[in-house]
Amino acid sequence: MAILEAVGLTKRFGGLVANQDVTIKIEKGSITAVIGPNGAGKTTFFNMITGFYEPDEGEILLAGKSIKGLRPDQIATRGITRTFQNIRLFKQMTALENVMVGTHSRLSAGLLGILFNTKRIREEEEKARVEAYQLLEYVGIEHIANEAAGSLPYGLQRRLEIARALATNPQIILLDEPAAGMNPRETVEMTEFIRLLKKELDLTIILIEHDMKLVMGLSEYIHVLDYGRKIAEGTPEQIRNNPSVIEAYLGKSATEVS
Amino acid sequence: MANLVWKSFKGIPLYVTLIWIAVFSLLLHFLDKSVLSFLGILSSIVLLYFTNTSNKIKLAIGALVLIVIIPLVAGENRYYMEVASQVGIYVAMALGLNIVVGFAGLLDLGYVAFFAAGAYAYAIFSTSQANEFIAGNLFPLSGDWFWPFLIVGLIVAAIFGILLGLPVLRVKGDYLAIVTLGFGEIIRIVFNNLDKPINITNGPQGITPIPAPELFGIKMGTPFYFYFIVLFIIAFIVLANIRFEHSRLGRAWIAIREDELAAQSMGISLLNTKLAAFATGASFAGVVGVIFAAKQTFIDPTSFTLMESIGILVMVILGGSGSIPGVILGAAFVTLLQVQLLKEFSNFLHSLQQSGIINLPNQLDPSKFQRLVFGIMLIFVALYRPNGLIPAKRKTNDLGAIKSSPFSSGKLGILSKLSQSSSTKQS
Which Gene3D superfamilies match (chain A) (predicted)? Predict the structure, then answer.
């Protein structure tokens, strides 16, 4: 069953058509990759799914219900979360607090409750803190729980961002270039980790990635965008041999040569 | 190298702080008009902050200095108590603005409007002014009403905050600064002109005589009483600030300040969270406004100019945006500079002039250089301490306490799926 359906999404910025009539169905519990050359509209697609852009045309269905036109925070509370291409952490906060922010919409403390520091609020806070710590353990960075997020090395920031996304208790997680800037060993680790996320936490994973080894090894299904249009979809095997994909990546003469 | 020295610095030994407090309180007691010893005793609070001892002891000594020692040695002197309560009023306001600017990162240049709202709320209803537009000759109210009006001022300012926030918070950054500046000015001009067609604020003539607070028949019109009222309000605002800082809401504010996009994708509603910051900050200013009106016994729109807003913003930035001790220090420092240091220095030069030692043209009077001094101070802070005098610092969580928490026994949140899948595997 498709958990997420994007039907005929179109987004224009002035004269530029960033996404045109993109239809993508995501199966529950799958790992799906969205690939394409630079400027193909992958991140625009992510931004429409997560509510940062409203599509000009088309429909987005989460488990059959429309989420089009909702604000990003409303979509996040409905179970779609994301990481960003250029890591966006709350730099001044500690790693633990970053993850605690992710629990925001599941906590209930309001102005007065916080002011009077009621027992319920204290318990809720403690629980959020424990949960955040467990998530740091899960991604393997609990030793830096009290460090400021901005001071962490790059690889740890990536993990922290995933831990923070997991704290929103999502069904679907969108990873925008999770292995960008990583060395081959780190990339392998990240691949294993994403697989683990799917298996252990029952997550549906959608990722944008340029590292073809990662994409081909990890994803079960691939959608290819080029100039804002979807040009192909299929299993890694099918995509590898698809002439229009090769053309989009390598240019026209490449297909002629092969 | 300098950094190394700073890191190995464990804090001032406790006895140094205690001797400091003792010496300056004795000095202040015996030398009746010694400004220096008064400043000395106020700065003992800063010293105390850097003292190497537990927080409980610091709190106890701090309370002792503020509640017992200062009133005891300076209580007879109206002027000192006046200065101390004025410092307190600005500290309280700066702490309110700290929530908006420091935590939520919303640059608000019209903050004084909320202060005005609180002040006018009490001024209008505690004098015969309200008779102008409410029939029945019910007013003026007695000073007993001061206390409930602290709450009224809070609510009125919070409502102002939400009403202003709704349209204004759609813009961000520099635009927000300009729009709040405009709104602040609009409020002041409205108060200035609301004497016709219906006379609500009495326009530029201002409102007087605003009654002093009264409790069980005691009139609390002297700076001595205001000192304690302000102290009480500061205690409340500091407590609120501390609780907010490390709460769900405080984290959301800081998350928005750090990165709006990421905050939204964590499920934080931008508008609601920003409105909460605006309303909270405004409500503190409203309470302080009520005290201000009662203390001055007279208010008019000139007390609520743009310069006031900027002055409070300077306190927050100078002290350390988002840092509670920093903001308190910044506010105290700027206010003292404004009301005491420069004036004292002027007086000193005047006395030299009178005795014929120097010849000082009137234009060079130091008390006229207030803004110049502010400007120079800000430049130095921006260059050498860009995060303020006491930079904001996030609390480190006690990881041991987290591990030993009763909640740690099971996996929480999304990780609860982990134990389910492993238990099904075992069976």
Answer: P-loop containing nucleotide triphosphate hydrolases
